[in-house]
Amino acid sequence: MIRIGHNPNTNMLPMFHFLQKEQPLLECAIAEPTGHNAMLAEGRIDMAPISAFSYGEHWREYAVLPNLSVSTKGRVGSILLFSKVPLETFEGLTVALSDASATSVNLTKILLHHYYGVHPHYVTMPANLKEMFEKAQAALLIGDAAIQAALLHPDCFIYDLGEEWFKHTGCSMTYAVWAFPKRLLAEQAAEIEKVYQLLLEAKAKALNHMEDIILECQRMLGGSFDFWKDYFAQFNYGLDLTYVMGLEKYLGLCYELNLLSSRPVLEFWPKE
Ligand SMILES: C=C(O[C@@H]1C=C(C(=O)O)C=C[C@H]1O)C(=O)O
């Protein structure tokens, strides 16, 4: 039995919609990314699409499943910094950060500190734009909370952090990787390999049946068919060499800016 983290956001539907969750091999724990980050670190689940940043915190203990990620090269559409003022004027202001995110929270800090040269204060809060704007001049939302807030066309600047990252680095950005603790390989390597195959099959089926995924998104959040088609067109759920380079750039900057205490080295399993 492998206990996996199930992320309920629409951007993860291409991984979960066709996954055979009734498989006796699988047990699913539904949570936002930071929930899975903590559950995996504490051994309450065995594998999850965790925040890339969380991999950076635990890289010595974890292995990454190859060919799987949540990435974009440029615009992402659901990692959005809503702001009452332009980014360049953030010095000394307060930015509210969604408590559901780890990768994007640190991506925000990289962009603001390293590329815009501004150092605001931060507060971490549940994802609610109205309440965040009561405490801060800007608010970071991810996933469905970001999509829903943007669909309401709030009267503020909206910065897409995938686009900002690409603009400054020319790199892709990987938000999530599928990781598991390497210690599980001693007794459960065959089960992990089997779950890995199930994940690859679920993804391949979804990418060949995107109409089904889009209909599910419309049921969940509304929005037009073209809106969702455009949203998913940005995403890459694989992890080829160019995406690995973007991920290494992000993790390296996290280390250089003291957001991580060591420079992560990616270790994949199964080896290809
Ligand atoms: C693209 C997204 O990526 C997510 C963002 C994460 C983070 O910021 O820690 C973690 C997992 C990803 O699935 C999103 O939620 O919009």
Question: How do the helices and strands line up, and which of them pair or pack?
Answer:
Layout: E1 2-6, H1 13-16, E2 26-30, H2 33-41, E3 48-51, H3 52-57, E4 62-72, E5 79-83, E6 94-98, H4 103-115, E7 121-125, H5 129-135, E8 138-142, H6 143-151, E9 157-160, H7 161-169, E10 173-181, H8 185-208, H9 210-221, H10 225-233, E11 235-236, H11 241-256
Parallel strand pairs: 1-2, 6-7, 6-8
Antiparallel strand pairs: 3-10, 4-10, 4-11, 5-8, 5-9
Helix pairs in contact: 4-7
Ligand ISJ binds at residues 7, 9, 11-12, 33, 49, 51, 70, 76, 78-79, 101-104, 142-143, 175-176.
Pfam family, one: VitK2_biosynth
Protein name: Chorismate dehydratase
Organism: Desulfosporosinus orientis (strain ATCC 19365 / DSM 765 / NCIMB 8382 / VKM B-1628 / Singapore I) (Desulfotomaculum orientis)
Please describe the structure with a list of short key phrases separated by commas or semicolons.
43% helix; 272 residues; hydro-lyase activity; binds the ligand C=C(O[C@@H]1C=C(C(=O)O)C=C[C@H]1O)C(=O)O; MqnA; alpha/beta; 2 domains; 4-stranded antiparallel sheet; D-Maltodextrin-Binding Protein, domain 2
Report on the architecture of this protein:
This protein has helices at 13-16, 33-41, 52-57, 103-115, 129-135, 143-151, 161-169, 185-208, 210-221, 225-233, 241-256; strands spanning 2-6, 26-30, 48-51, 62-72, 79-83, 94-98, 121-125, 138-142, 157-160, 173-181, 235-236. The longest helix is centred in the C-terminal third of the chain and has 24 residues, at 185-208. The chain folds into 2 domains: 2-72 and 173-256, Periplasmic binding protein-like II (D-Maltodextrin-Binding Protein, domain 2); 79-169, 3-Layer(aba) Sandwich (D-Maltodextrin-Binding Protein, domain 2). It is of the alpha/beta class and 272 residues long. It is globular. α1 (13-16) links the parallel β1 (2-6) and β2. α4 packs across α7 (161-169). It has 11 helices and 11 strands. The strands form 3 sheets. Strands 7-6-8-5-9 form a 5-stranded mixed sheet, with helices on both faces. A 4-stranded antiparallel sheet has the order 3-10-4-11. It has a two-stranded parallel ribbon with strand order 1-2. The mean pLDDT is 97. The ligand C=C(O[C@@H]1C=C(C(=O)O)C=C[C@H]1O)C(=O)O binds next to β3, α4 and β10. Residues 7, 9, 11-12, 33, 49, 51, 70, 76, 78-79, 101-104, 142-143, 175-176 line the site of ligand ISJ. Pathway: Quinol/quinone metabolism; menaquinone biosynthesis. It is an enzyme of class 4 (lyase). One of its GO terms (biological process) is menaquinone biosynthetic process. It comes from Desulfosporosinus orientis (strain ATCC 19365 / DSM 765 / NCIMB 8382 / VKM B-1628 / Singapore I). This is Chorismate dehydratase.
